[in-house]
Design brief:
The complex is a heterodimer. Chain A has one domain (about 15-120). Chain A is about 85% helix and about 0% strand. Chain A has helices at about 5-50, 55-75, 75-85, 85-90, 90-105, 110-120, 120-145. Classes of the chains: A mainly alpha, B mainly alpha. The interface between A and B is large, with 79 and 80 residues.
Chain lengths: ~140, ~120
C-alpha cells in the first residue's frame, strides 16, 4: 500500500480503536440475542402451559433471574460476562447478576450489612431511578388524562 | 419469526450498551440506570409496546423492558385507581422481577462459596 507516514498513522489509529469495539459489539450482540431468544422460548412455553400473557412475561423474568443468580453463584455468569460485555449486562440476567455479585463479594461482612445490604448496591440505583421516572410519567399521564 | 426478531432486536439493544461501555467508560450501574429510565420514557409514550409487538422477548428481556413494565404499570394503575396509582403502579407491575432478584440473589449469595475463604 502506498501511503505517507501521516496517512498510515491515521489508518492504524482507525484500526486500533475500531477493531476491539466492533468485536465487542458482535460478542455483545450474539450473547444478548441468545439470552433474548431464550427468553422468548421461556415465554412461549409458559403461554403453551396456559398462563396468561402478563403472567407468562413475569414468569419469564423470574426464570431468567433465577438462572442468572444460579450461574453467578457458581461463578459461570461472570466468566461469560468477561467476553460478552453488555450482552450479559443489559438483559434482565445482568440485573440479577448485579444483585448477586456484590452480595457474594461482601459475604464475609455478615448476612445483614454484607449480603443483604449489598444486594441493592446496583439494583438499588436501578429501582430508585426506575421508580422515580415511573412516578414522573404517572404524574404527567394523570395530569393529561 | 418472533425468535429471529427477538435475537436481532435483543442483540441490537445489547450492542448499543457495548458502545456505551467502550466509548463513554460509563460504569455498568449507570448503564443499567440509563436503560431503565429510557424504558420508562419510551414506555410512557407507548413506543416500547410497539417494539414488543414484533420483537417479543428481544424487547422485554433487556432492562429497557423492565422500565417499560414500570411505565405500563403506572398507566394501568392510574386508569384504575386514579392518583394513588401513580404511587402503586410501578412497583406492583415490577414486583415479580424485583422479588425474584432479591430472593434468588440472597439464596445465590448464601450458597456461593466466598472467594476469600
Amino acid at each position: 500500500m502506498n501511503m505517507s507516514k501521516k496517512q498510515y498513522k491515521k489508518y492504524v489509529k482507525t484500526k486500533v480503536t475500531k477493531s476491539p469495539l466492533f468485536k465487542n459489539m458482535i460478542k455483545a450482540y450474539i450473547t444478548g440475542g441468545i439470552i433474548c431468544t431464550a427468553g422468548q422460548l421461556l415465554n412461549d412455553s409458559y403461554l403453551y402451559f396456559g398462563f396468561a400473557e402478563e403472567q407468562a412475561g413475569t414468569l419469564t423474568s423470574i426464570t431468567l433471574v433465577f438462572l442468572s443468580a444460579f450461574l453467578t453463584s457458581i461463578g459461570i455468569y461472570d466468566k461469560i460476562a468477561k467476553h460478552a460485555g453488555a450482552g450479559t449486562l443489559v438483559p434482565i440476567t445482568g440485573f440479577a447478576n448485579a444483585v448477586v455479585s456484590p452480595a457474594i463479594e461482601f459475604k464475609d461482612e455478615g448476612y445483614v450489612l454484607g449480603v443483604a445490604a449489598n444486594i441493592f448496591k446496583i439494583a438499588g440505583p436501578v429501582i430508585t431511578y426506575g421508580v422515580i421516572a415511573s412516578v414522573v410519567s404517572g404524574l404527567i399521564y394523570y395530569a393529561l388524562g | 419469526m418472533t425468535y429471529l426478531w427477538a435475537f436481532l432486536i435483543g442483540g441490537a439493544i445489547c450492542s448499543i450498551g457495548q458502545i456505551l461501555i467502550d466509548k463513554t467508560m460509563l460504569t455498568p450501574a449507570r448503564i443499567l440506570v440509563m436503560y431503565v429510565v429510557l424504558g420508562v420514557i419510551l414506555g410512557s409514550f407507548g413506543v416500547y409496546e410497539k417494539l414488543i409487538d414484533f420483537a417479543g422477548a428481544g424487547a422485554t428481556v433487556p432492562l429497557t423492558g423492565f422500565g417499560n413494565v414500570l411505565a405500563k404499570g403506572v398507566k394501568e394503575a392510574v386508569d384504575k385507581d386514579g392518583i394513588v396509582g401513580i404511587f402503586t403502579g410501578g412497583l406492583t407491575a415490577s414486583s415479580g422481577g424485583i422479588c425474584a432478584a432479591i430472593l434468588f440473589g440472597y439464596l445465590g449469595a448464601l450458597f456461593a462459596r466466598s472467594k476469600e475463604k
